[in-house]
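User: Could you write out the 3D structure of this protein bound to protoporphyrin IX containing FE? I've included everything you need below.
Assistant: Certainly. Input first, then the structure.
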Amino acid sequence: MILFSIFLCLIIYFIIKHILEVRKYPPGPISIPVLGNLFQLAYYIKKTGSPLGAFKLIKEQHGPIFTIWLGPYPAILICDYELAVEAMVKKGANFVDRWNPPNVDVLRKGHGLMFSNGDYWVEQRRFTLHTLRNLGVSRNIMERRILDEFHMRFENVKSDDAIFINEVFELITANIINRILFSYGFDEKNLDKFYSLKKRMDYQLDNANLLEACVPEFAQKFSYFKKRSEKMMEPFFDVKNFLQDQIVERMEEIKNGTHEVGEEPSDFVDAYLMEIQKMKDNHIESSFSLEALVMAVFDLYFAGQETTAATLAWAVCYFLNHPDVVERVRNELRDVTGGNRDLSQNDKLKTPYFNATIHEIQRLANIVTINLFRRAAEDVEIGGVTIRKGQAVTAQIGNILSDERYFADPDKFNPDRYLSDEKLENQTIPFGIGKRACLGESLAKAELYLIIGNLVQRYKIEAVDKTPSENPLNASSAARKPEKFYIRLNEIK
Ligand code: HEM
């Protein structure tokens, strides 16, 4: 009885302490962690069919800035474009660092581009952007590579071939990023390895649960959570090892003279190894190391394929559902190219309807279910709400891209909206905004323009069995992907 009373008092103490604590945060659904998540959020997700729907509902009740609880951690979602700009751009210096769930570091140990912080991140990001530019991203060299990859996959298809288009796009984007990193693409020799790693990683991502990533560090020591976390992270470690083995092999080849690094490095790994050596030779302390290289390559490899491949698959899905749009895009592109040359990024100024169509594809595809979080460096006021130092905050892209205030009838695929309102282009922010915005934006934009554009201008696209649905395969998974489907391509003579 005494023990029970003590237990009860402790629970009441924690609840009261917590209720006092939550008053510091912007309002949200039931402000009791765990319960707030497990019941209220889950109920909203069930009611609306997706986290995006749940956040929309919370926004209607509490305003565009609100708190949800990731286990014991409060996380603030900004669901309005102007407020997101105020926070992430105008007051951007306050939102540079990432806020990471505790188990992120199991794999990374503070390394990489995506979740690292401080001077380490500044140095790594600057170097990566500079190196990608030198390797031809945003120049003709990259355009050529993307087009080569496009031709390699589609040139020999016959009109009665059933093409598993999701998989083809995954391979195209993987090859483009892998050539940047290691100078080679996947072929018969290593394709099985690529697909087996990818399948396992996809499974984990499709079933990933943000709450699970937020189990506090002390609780991760319990056997149940430890085992679950190890199982969840297994495929990521396998990919990390796969990439690390290739880097070590490259180092050995350089050592034994079978691989030469010229003045101009031919890929990211060479450039990075040169940087490590340069720092060592000049006795400069820096963030460049083998572990840092492995994690930087991991982030580029991982972020560089999944996102773009899913967007390309959405593009074909929308085209199959909206033949009128395809016809208009095709006519515009063939007017520009004469139908007898590849579409090039230099044509962009002459393809306003196609540009609008790409914006609309990215807006409606809305592939990032919950955006990555930043950590507030200081107390700051956004839209009348105080965000406190140390809190997790994000510009919730998914809800910004489907905000009726800017995008009338937001669930409708309608590229024309961009032609009648020039401001909408700026308000379409699939790559995020501010200092931590996507590092691969120009590569991704080049891939989308060249691959979608050349596919449409060259081929008539047909669904094999049935037209794929415009609804995502799993509205609750970390990345909104379309269902898997097959197409046929008929070359336009
Ligand atoms: C359609 C394709 C893509 C979309 C929609 C996309 C979207 C995003 C988003 C929303 C973020 C987080 C931004 C934020 O914190 O607010 C991000 C970060 C990032 N993306 Fe992408 N991305 C795409 C393609 C790529 C590609 C091709 C690469 C690599 C070449 C890449 C590399 C990264 C990296 C490294 C970060 C972390 C940046 C940092 O924390 O400094 N992404 N991306």
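The two ends are 86 Å apart (CA to CA).
User: Perfect, thank you.
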